[in-house]
Amino acid sequence: MTYDFIIYGSGLSSKLLALALSRSNFKSLIITNNKLKTNKTNLVTFLSDGSLKYMSEVLESKDIFNKSENIEKLNCGHLYSKKETKFEFKSQKHSILGKVVPNVIIDELLNNKIRSKSEYIHITDYQEVIVKNDDNKIIIKDKLGEIRTASLLFYSSSSQDNDLLKNFDFVEKKLNQIAISASVNIQRLQQNIAYQLFTTDGPVALLPIKDDKASMVWSLRKNSPILKLSKNNLESHLISLFKSYINDLEIINMQTQKLSFSYAKKIYESKTVLIGNIAHNIHPIAGQGFNLTIKDISKIVFYINKNYSLGLELNSNQTLESFSNNRKFDNFTFSFGTLAMENIFSSENNIIRFLTSKGLSFVDNSKSIKNIFIEKATGKYNFQDY
Asked: Domain residues of the chain, as ranges?
C-alpha cells in the first residue's frame, strides 16, 4: 500500500504531525508498539499561546484544554546569599503566555482525533522494519514480506539506537541531573500565575493547572540531598520556598527521571526528517521542548503544502532545505540557550550568582528585552504561515 508519509514513533509529536498532515488529505502510516494507548504519567507540558492556537487549528476546536487555566504571568526568583532577586514576565495585550496541560490529557485528545481521521491515518505495530530508498520512495518491509511505500519518513522515536539514524550525528551531554515531577494540591494566593525559582540545588517550577491542581518540577544534581527527603519534608521545603505565593502544598504523587541533552546536527538526511525530542532533547528549565516541536511541525507542513501546490514532489529537496533553514536558528538558540541558562542559574559560585542577580534585575527593568523573551517563548511570530 502507498502512503504519502511514514511516521516512526508513537508519542505526542508523531500524532500531532499525522493530524496536521491529514488536514491537507495526506495519508500517513504511524509505526508504533502501543497503538493508541495513552501512557500514564504525571508529566505536564507548558503550551505557549502560539502552540495552543496552532493545535486548535489542527484539532479543529477553539476551546481545547479548557480544564487548564490561562497563564498570564510568570513570577521568577533567583536566590543568592539568602536574598531573592524577583523578576516577572507578563502576557502581552490580547494574549496569554500559555497553559499547563497534563500530558495524558494531550495524548487522549490526539488519540480521539486520530480515530476520527481513520481515512488518512493508519497505525501499525510492526516490531521490525527495513527501510530502503528506492526510486524516490521510502520502502518498508515487515518480517512477513508485506510492503508499504511513502515519499518521506519522519523519525519521531526518542531512541537513537536505530539503523534509521545511521546518517545522523548528535551533540550530546550528560547532565548528571534527575528531575522530580510531582502532582500537587496547593492553596495559592493568586490565580493565572506560574512560578519558577532558581536555587543552588537547581531550578524548581510550580505550574498551576486549575483550581488547586498544579505540577511541581525540580531539576536536581544526582547527589542532591533533596532527593533523599521524605514526602513530608519535601512538602515543608517547597512550602518554605514558595511561601510568598502559597499557603499550603500537598504532594499527590511523584516520579523521577534522568535528564539528558542531545541536539541533531542536521534535521533531515535524504528522505528522513527528525521530529520531536530526537531532533532536540533540551533541558526543561524554560518549558520549551514540545513548543519547539510544534513549531517544527507547523513549518514542515507549511513547506510541504506550499511546494506541492507548485508541482514539486512531497519529498523535494527545496521543501526539506527550506524547512531546515527556517528552523535551524530557533532550535539552536533554544537548545543551547537553555543549557547555558541552567548552568548559570544553578551555579553555586557566589560571584556568578551575584552577577546573575544583577543581570536579572536589569532585564526586569527593561520592558523591551522582556518583550523579546515573551515573543520568542510564546511563538508570536512562528505560526503566521500555518
From this structure: 5-172+261-378
Output the pTM of the full model.
0.91
Q: What is the pLDDT of residues 248-287, one digit of tens each?
A: 999 999 999 999 999 999 999 988 999 999 999 988 877 7
Whole-angstrom distance, CA of residue 14 vs CA of residue 275 = 8
For residue 229, name the pLDDT band (cuts at 50, 70, 90): very high
What would the 3-class secondary structure string for the chain be? Answer: CECCEEEECCCHHHHHHHHHHHCCCCCEEEECCCCCCCCCCCCEEEEEHHHHHHHHHHHCCCCCCCCCCEECEEEEEEEECCEEEEEEEECCCCCCCEEEEEHHHHHHHHHHHHHCCCCCEEEECCCCCEEEEECCEEEEECCCCCEEEECEEEECCCCCCCHHHCCCCEEEEEEEEEEEEEEEEEEECCCCEEEEEEECCEEEEEEEEECCEEEEEEEEECCCHHHHCCHHHHHHHHHHHCCCCEEEEEEEEEEEEEEEEEEECCCEECCEEECCCCCEECCHHHCCHHHHHHHHHHHHHHHHHHHHHCCCCCCCHHHHHHHHHHHHHHHHHHHHHHHHHHHHHCCCCHHHHHHHHHHHHHHHCCHHHHHHHHHHHHCCCCCCCC
| CATH numeric code, 5-172+261-378 | 3.50.50.60
Rounded to the nearest 10°, the torsion over CA 317, 322, 325, 331 is: -110
Cell of 144: 512477513
For the chain, give the longest Cα–Cα distance: 66
Cell numbers of 382, please? 512562528
Which pairing describes strands 193-199 and 73-80: parallel, antiparallel, or unpaired? parallel
What's the gap between Cα 29 and its chain centre? 23
| Beta bridge mates, 263 | 171, 280
Which range among 4-13, 42-51, 280-289, 357-366 shows the weakest confidence by mean pLDDT? 357-366
52 neighbors 290 (Cβ within 8 angstroms): no
Q: How far apart are CA 385 and CA 32, in angstroms?
A: 30
Q: What is the 3-state secondary structure (H, E, C) of 48-81?
A: EHHHHHHHHHHHCCCCCCCCCCEECEEEEEEEEC
In this structure, what are the phi and psi dihedrals at residue 98, rounded to the nearest 5 degrees?
Answer: 160, -160
